[in-house]
Write a structure and sequence with these properties.
It is built from two helices and 28 strands. It is mainly β and 344 residues long. It folds into three domains: 1-84, Bulb-type lectin domain (Agglutinin, subunit A); 87-213, Agglutinin, subunit A; 226-342, no CATH class. A five-stranded antiparallel sheet has the order 23-28-25-26-24, with helices on one face. The chain has a four-stranded antiparallel sheet with strand order 7-16-17-18, with no helix packed on it. The chain has a four-stranded antiparallel sheet with strand order 9-8-15-14, with no helix packed on it. The chain is 4% helix and 40% strand. It is elongated, with a radius of gyration of 24 Å. The protein has helices spanning 247-251, 295-304; strands at 26-30, 33-37, 43-46, 58-62, 68-72, 79-82, 90-91, 97-100, 105-106, 108-114, 117-127, 134-138, 142-146, 159-165, 169-176, 183-187, 193-199, 204-211, 226-228, 236-238, 242-244, 259-261, 275-281, 289-290, 310-314, 317-321, 328-329, 336-342.
Length: 344
């Protein structure tokens, strides 16, 4: 939790293995490690360090900056383990966000699966291994945003920040000029990195910046066969002839599951031949392959190909998509034309 009222969750130990009864479950120090026991008293999470402390002297403390630390209560105030080294979706002031040059691994801020599920979501933030910037990725693979420069990440009027590099690591740290300011960087469930400040008067988080600035620039925000339009709420909508894969998740603004066809066609049966839905998109989806060089043949090729889901004919080139269509951002005025196979 964080020192807002009501409390805000900024770190979760057991993201993928939740407890069933939080009143019976127990967090305790066992043999020099901090261990979470479930309602059956079975360990489901541990700091898992080889402690240099006496097995009986290790203690766990939450510091004023929000850092949960495990340390030797008798001999040292240096942490044996600390939550700041294992961030979930939030970076707090004073925490180092680093790239380890020895292990070639970057710390990650990863979104929750939904507003109610702290499991690891699809969107992540990491420090670039070679350049002085941070980058956002979808599914740990597709980059969709980067800072370009540190000035686009933070607002100097409120914060001071540093970027340090040495033979062991590179890292980014930030602090509020006003130490009483309660703030956080968060990778939210919709894939935006937000810098937020807590308002004591309204008892809510207000964001100073969000990156990418527009929600539809987040890669695959609306999942497969979902389209994003910045001028409407919610941002995501299923293509005509499609419906949410999970209605309950969609109603909770979790669009990552995308959409599926309302009626599936049976390949090879002429009586169930599909048609094509024309849409205009900011950019064509990835992972296409080029086929014939005729608009008519392009349509026929996709129509007769059981695995083809869409086609586009631009500049005398026919592009075919045979997988799920991702990253469809609508642009009816200046967009590129895409024909999606569907049943109506």
């Amino acid at each position: 939790m964080y020192s807002s009222n009501p409390p805000t969750i900024v770190w979760v130990a057991n993201r993928e293995t939740l407890v069933s009864d939080r009143f019976i479950s127990e967090l305790k120090v066992v043999d020099g490690n901090l261990v979470l026991l479930n309602e059956s008293k079975l360990p489901i999470w541990s700091t898992n360090v080889t402690s240099t402390a006496s097995l009986n002297s290790a203690i766990a403390v939450i510091l004023d900056d929000g850092n949960l630390v495990l340390r030797d209560g008798l001999n040292s105030f240096e942490p044996i383990w600390q939550s700041f080294d294992h961030p979930t979706n939030t970076l707090l002031p004073g925490a180092k966000f680093n790239y380890n040059k020895r292990t070639n691994k970057s710390q990650l801020l990863t979104s929750w699966k939904s507003t109610d599920d702290p499991g690891v979501g699809l969107f992540s933030l990491e420090l670039h291994p070679f350049r002085m910037m941070v980058i956002s990725k979808w599914n740990r693979s597709q980059q969709y945003w980067d800072t370009g420069s540190w000035d686009s990440l933070v607002i100097r009027a409120y914060y001071k920040y540093t970027y340090q590099t040495n033979e062991n690591e590179s890292y980014f740290t930030y602090y509020a000029y006003n130490p009483s300011t309660i703030s956080r960087f968060i990778m939210n469930v919709a894939g935006q990195l937000q810098l937020q400040i807590w308002s004591a008067s309204t008892k809510e988080w207000n964001f100073l910046s969000a990156q990418p600035e527009t929600q539809c620039k987040v890669y695959a925000l609306c999942g497969a066969f979902g389209t994003c339009r910045q001028t409407r709420l919610p941002f995501c909508n299923c293509l005509t002839g499609f419906m949410p894969r999970s209605e309950s998740e969609w109603n909770q603004s979790d669009f990552s599951g995308g959409c599926v066809r309302k009626s599936n066609f049976v390949c090879g049966r002429n009586m169930e031949k599909p048609d094509f839905l024309m849409i205009k998109v900011t950019s064509l989806p990835p992972n296409s392959f080029v086929a014939v060089k005729s608009n008519g043949k392009c349509r026929t090729t996709c129509l007769n190909n059981c695995s083809c889901n869409a086609y586009s004919f631009v500049g005398n080139n026919c592009s075919i998509w045979d997988g799920e269509l991702l990253n469809l951002s609508e642009d009816n005025a200046n967009g590129k034309t895409l024909y999606v196979k569907a049943m109506f």
